[in-house]
Design a protein that fits this description.
Blueprint (H helix, E strand, L loop, with lengths): L2 H23 L8 E8 L7 H7 L2 E8 H10 L4 E6 L3 E6 L5 E5 L11 H17 L7 H9 L4 H8 L6 H5 L2 H9 L3 H25 L6 E6 L6 H12 L4 E4 L5 H12 L14
Parallel strand pairs: 1-2, 3-6, 6-7
Antiparallel strand pairs: 3-4, 4-5
Helix pairs in contact: 3-11, 4-5, 4-6, 4-9, 8-9, 9-10
Length: about 280
Amino acid sequence: MNAGDGKEKFVRAISDCVREACQAAGVRFETVEFEAACLGFSGGPKDKEPLLRQLLRCRRMVVVTDAPIALAGATGGEPGVITIAGTGSISWGRNREGKTARAGGWGYIFGDEGGGFDIVRRALRAALRYEEGWGPPTALHSLLLEATGAASANELMHAFYTVEYPRPKIAALSKLVDEAALGGDAVARRILETAAERLVEITAAVRNQLFALGEIVRIAYVGGVFKSELLRSRFQMLLESTEGNVVSPPKYGPAAGALLEAYAAAGLHPALDAAPELK
């Protein structure tokens, strides 16, 4: 796909989404002018904002990464810190003065510690070491081969370098590490513990930049990696060992967070009483 095709696909997706929302609200997409809009995207907003300004008639437009809207949804618009761990990882926060900070989010080559891709990379390394005779036995070897159909860990390593295994597909295999850990595999358990510790480090870095020692801080987490109870409980335990930290799942999702950010851009601060909370 060339750059032109990518832009066309992006504009069409946003247009269809907003058009559908306008229809549900009983207004015409072709004539409506929004007082304010907030749109959050992974991968950075700079290349998207010019396209959005052509597409939407809007007096105030805020285009951000996915982290600010995730935090706004998680805390109901209140200050705090959000740590996102899906394929990759990043932590982002904002205090009452509006100061923001981030840590992580460097991408899979230089960072993203604690994310799903990083967890599977560590798991495959453990399987390779075991296969080559210089690592401890681990159930990760058989689980990875069974899940992928590879004949060996070495074959799987080479497959991971091909287009057949994009990063999200590799990251999705992190559930196998959780499965092995729950089954008593010490190698898998240590991989998850290490992932939790790396996520704690970026979270603490953001928290310490924005909030005073002992200040009550809401810390939320989101992303597929936190489906692991072992990882999640260690993440929470380590963070709450610092006075003032309160760790919990998000109250609302990022869509509600974008709505709250749009309201704020318009100078409004309503409560989302009618919005369903996440379970």
